[in-house]
Amino acid sequence: MSIPDMVFSGLGGAVIASVVSWVIYVKSQTKPSGKAYSLLKVLGKRLKEPEGEYHFTKSTDDNYHVAREIYAHADGDVIATAFSESPVKYGDSDIARAFKYGSRFARITCEDVCAVDEQQAAAVSLTRILKGSTLAVVPRGQPVTKIDGVFCRFDDDTHLCFIAFRNPDDPDQKNTGVIFRNGIAEGFFNYYRTIADKYTTRA
User: Fold this and answer.
1) What percent of the chain is modeled with pLDDT above 90?
2) Cβ(176)–Cβ(167) under 8 Å?
3) Tens-place pLDDT, residues 77-111
């Protein structure tokens, strides 16, 4: 074998070895699966976003429909936060009423937006819509991270998280948000589960 043949043979072998290694690596990776991933794909199609691990919403209308879809498909535990407005205003039009197949629903709010004289009414309204649900009210001055969103753990132990970004100039019309799954979504869920358990009040 000539020297050029030996060189190209070596290079060819290296390329083939690299390709084979890459194929083995790709095949060995766990493909995304689970109920959180399935719902993420559905939401991505609704938002007309390419398939991925997260999707952005572009309007208040998007936010409403995303939250409603999560409630409608959730079959495990859901925690919803309301730190920017009092949940007492939701009344019978509360979109959480779409939560029909899950096991536990909790809403967290804070005393800054849900005054003491509103808390009982908010709790009663919520349990009228969703039996067994709970309302947690964080007292003023507590060092809690206040993020508005919906945090879901499906019964297959996958997680989905939707965080709403309120537009300070037009919070009724120009809000956006982001949806993602597992990893950080699980972290958010576990964090707010602790908060909900600590500050829950019952109607």
Assistant:
1) 69
2) yes
3) 999 999 999 999 998 899 999 998 888 999 999 99
Same domain (yes/no): 4, 97 = no
Give CA–CA dist 170/200, Å, rounded. Answer: 31
Longest dimension (CA), the chain: 91
Same domain, 6 and 102: no
Number of domains in the chain: 2
Q: What interhelical angle do 60-73 and 35-46 show, nearest 10?
A: 150
For 168-185, how does the pLDDT look when each residue is reduced to its tens digit (9 = 90+)? 777 677 899 999 999 999
**Residue 64's domain is classified under what CATH number?**
3.30.870.10
pTM of the model: 0.82
Residues in the chain: 203
40 and 71 belong to one structural domain? yes
Taking CA atoms, 28 is separated from 15, 18, 157, 158, in Å, by 20, 15, 22, 20
144 and 96 in one domain? yes
